[in-house]
């Protein structure tokens, strides 16, 4: 699916690597992230139009520091180094990097000192976001500095003849003024890429990919949750193979109020005929009984999903494939994107499938971010109720329940989640947040209801804003809305005596509690 104008971002563990990929895509150039130490052959095999070397936590002179294959710098490709990437270029090509006596963190004034395609249309002075302790103290042969920071440190450098550019600051973060222009200048002026990519433009290629994978005779199962990812994957697969597509929707007993009816209605609406609804709630809930560890719960659910899919598949003749709505962040967060990144959570659809899974997995959306999937869904004509639906994790309410999943906690989670969603809709704020939900804690709080002591549960309400679920900020919820939600949950949901609001961003938290 790679076209000529792909930008590959070599990841050295930077905090903002994903933002670089997103910004580049927003500018109309397809981009992907690769491990920073990928070999020159692996990089060139993907026929990139340009490379970006990301930031990273290490010092270039640290013996453990990740390094690019040096031949990459000689391959003649346009390169932009950012922060650690900037330092790597200097270090490898014969310049020098030193521990700076003055670290620069946060907003820093930048002075443009030279003529540079990178700085075209950018004022001679602007504020940029810095986050570094090392500094390039000597540039390699043939490089010149084009900007300095307020402390006189090199902030941008280049060797235009070799089409190698580097910046010490982070053009990809919103706090850097003109960061977008600088990236745009790199892509279109320095690297001469042509742009014009948008997520919708990938629809034909995605349909093509599904047709090719499944072949002219093949039949596939598509696991659908009703979320925008799997609905979009199903519609793409349906375009590709028509009624050779069978959709399976599983009730694992961890769904929200009204969800079964809603999803079946939505499936009917997109014209998919072969729908298999499986009520497997007893099977899932009994397997989860007494299991408190979050990762263990996820892995059990992943395994049971796979078993149910295999059962359904074996009842339909000729099914050899499973189409899933896996998206890019699912793979990244499950630690599947490259070496050295940590597995944060086992998203059931990535890490949960058993090694000997009997069906071949087909994932048309595997390289897209959520907002890009939404753009595709809109383009495909899916209804706004699907396009705008908040993400709901595959393991369902199990990840919104601390400790073991009991019927008591499930009932609380179900009611409390319904109240949160209803009130966000009523306040006109459903579309303003990435997600809004309630989680049920194991801990208790002493309450007093109708003059009687009641040892009740704690429910945590969480609402976040986010672009892609990779990072998130807690939503500054209006107090009136929080008051209504809190009052309704504590009054209407038996067994709850405390409602709290989660005021931590991601990082350091994640969005869902488990
Ligand atoms: N109840 C379910 N029945 C069948 N398949 C499911 C179910 N829940 C999840 N899946 C499968 O797991 C995949 C991942 O779930 P995930 O929640 O990430 O995506 P989604 O539900 O499609 O979208 P969203 O993130 O918007 O909820 C889905 O795309 C689908 O293939
Ligand atoms: O399909 C999914 N399977 C999962 O196992 C899963 N866990 C979390 N999520 C959703 O992913 C986004 C990031 O969540 P976290 O910050 O909690 O990791 C949030 O939007 C979460 O709702 C999941 N989606
Ligand atoms: N953000 C970065 O890439 C930091 C690079 C390097 N670790 C430094 O501290 O200078
Ligand atoms: Mg979902």
UniProtKB/TrEMBL annotation:
Keywords: ATP-binding, Glutamine amidotransferase, GMP biosynthesis, Ligase, Nucleotide-binding, Purine biosynthesis. It catalyses: XMP + L-glutamine + ATP + H2O = GMP + L-glutamate + AMP + diphosphate + 2 H(+). InterPro entries: Class_I_gatase-like, GATASE, GMP_synth_C, GMP_synth_GATase, GMP_synthase, GMPS_ATP_PPase_dom, Rossmann-like_a/b/a_fold. Its EC number is 6.3.5.2. One of its GO terms (cellular component) is cytosol. It comes from the Archaea. Coiled coil: none annotated. Gene3D superfamilies: 3.30.300.10, 3.40.50.880, HUPs. The active site is at 83 (nucleophile), 170, 172. Pathway: Purine metabolism; GMP biosynthesis; GMP from XMP (L-Gln route): step 1/1. ATP binds at residues 225-231. One of its GO terms (molecular function) is GMP synthase activity. Residues 197-389 form the GMPS ATP-PPase domain. Catalyzes the synthesis of GMP from XMP. HAMAP family: GMP_synthase. NCBIfam families: guaA_Cterm, guaA_Nterm, PRK00074.1. This is GMP synthase [glutamine-hydrolyzing]. It comes from Conexivisphaera calida.
